[in-house]
Amino acid sequence: MKKRVLRYLKHILGTIIIFMAIGASILIYENGSIHYGDNPKKMDWDNEGPYVFYKNDSTLNINYIKGSKKEGFYVDEKEVSTKQSALARSFFALDSTSFSFNLDSDFQIPESTYTDNQKIIAVSDIESGYRTFRDFLINNKVIDQDLNWTFGKGHLVLVGDFVDRGFSTTQVLWFIYKLEQEAKKHKGNVHFIIGNHELKNMYGDYGAASLKYTFVTSILGKTQANLYDKNSFLGKWLSSKNAIESINGNLFAHGGLHPDISKIDMTLDEINSFLRANYYNAPYPKANKAKTELLLSSKTGVSWYRGYFREDDLSQKQVDSSLDKFDAKSIVVGHTLQNKVKRVFEGKVIGIDVQHPKDYHKNWPKKTSEGLLIENEKYYRVLSDGSISEI
């Protein structure tokens, strides 16, 4: 009897192990992961901010959250003139570091096309991972340990979805804002390409935002809609950004170009202008169909399209036609998760969305960051430790 029970238990255990192995294989194949080990510092909100809003055309209202979960939270608030450059600081609780920057309300619409043959580093879908983003840039010599720009006249291209799914959205956005200022001092460029999650935060879909920001806005006496609306500093800044750019003959867009976009008689400047005018509008099917709806749709839009990796009938000819329309040799996209940075469609489409490590929890399998380097017309996969390999 005992032997029979042991055989039965071994059979059950063996079956469980087989199913676990199959499950783990599927998880890895689908680029999935298991989340564990939450760090309690995710609730440390003392010095959280700044949250900056326009009181009127001439006055900025700057807010920092103070206190703790145990002692209670309150808001430290001050007002400054929009005509002066106000110094602000963002604090990162996980390692108790901070960085400073100047608030300048003079937002300039970026160019859509750049031609200078300078090197390019691109990364996408950081999803509120400040430490991951910062350390990736340090190890790849874009900035130094003190967060000073060291990339010369190079281009740092951020290909969308730097918000949501994490506890450091505020820190990531202010860090990008700071990087822009640092790059300009050295005639370099930071290009923040708008992704679908930046759009969601502008038009009011907060389903992927951390619960932290529900409480943060309550402490501030605001709603989540206020964080990135037209009356917020970061909202105005985000709404000035492009959804697609061409840099040294390479297109950068979060989603990509649906093949029918090649039939729309619009330049990159015109596409960006049209999209900026619609950033605060949720995408919905229009009764009066227009060709430009392709640009806005949550299936075919520039910030939403997934066809390079999920449409079996997309042809090389269609990809080439889209690139030819904008005199481009390749397009670099995020949005659709890859197991590594890779090239498809004869190397003309480069997917760079990988699973980056999170700030306040761990994952199995362990995540590591990757990005793309373009230099001397060659393409390299760059890793979080600074190593590179040509692709």
TrEMBL record:
Keywords: Membrane, Transmembrane, Transmembrane helix. It comes from the Bacteria. Pfam families: Metallophos. One of its GO terms (molecular function) is hydrolase activity. The chain crosses the membrane at residues 12-29. Residues 119-337 form the Calcineurin-like phosphoesterase domain. The keyword Transmembrane applies. This is Calcineurin-like phosphoesterase. It comes from Winogradskyella jejuensis. The lineage of its organism: Bacteria, Pseudomonadati, Bacteroidota, Flavobacteriia, Flavobacteriales.
